[in-house]
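Here is one chain, start to finish.
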Amino acid sequence: MRIFSTIIAALRALRRNKMRSVLTALGIIIGVAAVISMISIINGAKSQLESQIASLGQNVVLVFSGNFSAGGVRSGMGGAGTLTVEDALAIQKEVRGVITVSPEVRDRKQVLANGLNWSTQILGEGPDYLMIRSWPLTSGSLFTEQDIRSTNKVCIIGQTIVNQLFPADDPIGQTLRIQNIPFKVLGVLSIKGLSIQGSDQDDVVIVPYTSEMKRVSKRTNLNGVNVQAESAEAEKQVESDIADLLRQRHRIIDTSGHEDDFTIRGQDEIQNAVSAQANTMTYLLGGIAGVSLLVGGIGIMNIMLVSVTERTREIGIRMAVGAHGRDILAQFLIEAVVLSLIGGGLGVLLGIGSAQMFSHLNHWTTLVSTSSVVISLLFSGAVGIFFGFYPARKAAQLDPIDALRYE
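Its structure:
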């Protein structure tokens, strides 16, 4: 029963100085609120990035043209036309673990329809592109292998194109002009949203890659190749085999990779890079918020030391009537822990409210994780114990005679 009477005495002491107790807990409140709100915002951003990576498709390996050194000049990905249609077909035919490929040609052109015009991205792709990207159609159909072989003037369009050029009409079967070349609209893509780079994935017109190369851009090389591996476990081996095949086809002798005229990126590599960046931001912002908790703990220690000084005579009286040093230690330690936990609880509520307000005002997804709430409460309790122990120990070591004489 002694522990319960000690807790009651500690709570009674805190209630006698309500304003000082609230101000003492303020540092903990702000620190915990900062931790909860920042981690919620980061988790929301990470979730959005992960969903954008997932929009690439399943087990996707991206092969880009470029990223090579020649004569002291270094080009970025897609900066040089080093990939060919034959390279893409060889990847599909010769690399084990590859389900399908889609040669890719990218361009930006002005498109016209219904007396309206819009500048958009033109993608030349193969008939399996939508399967690789896990991108279904909302209406219509995709072009076929026959359209690829015949370089037919057909296309499918994203929702942004529908909104801009066909605001009141069904686009299926209508004509869309690319560089004054008429293309028949076969289908409309489902909404994808923003890409990892922040661009609108729905602002796109997809045509057969042969039609793009021969009719629109008049080019012979690819910007890249979209490859789908049979499983996530096979991705690394597929990447390695593609690299070996392209080095062989492009007669690259230096196997160290410094002279590669292509770049390969796996979906898991992109996912890991995004996760690493998100974790770095979590640690950084969590550390900044942790400083607030540290300052709050120092405030608790300071106020508890003042409280010990003010209540010296009270401590002496308690000891005189039979209280032991451990009882005094427990009382002051409980006061510090209760202050920290109350501050932690209020901080959690404030942090969740701040995160929700940020989400509402900025239309940004925020995710409050249970683990961050539990860790914040445990940490605030630990702060109370750590910073409250010294004042409590000092109170417990007071000499009863000297304490009774204290004025």
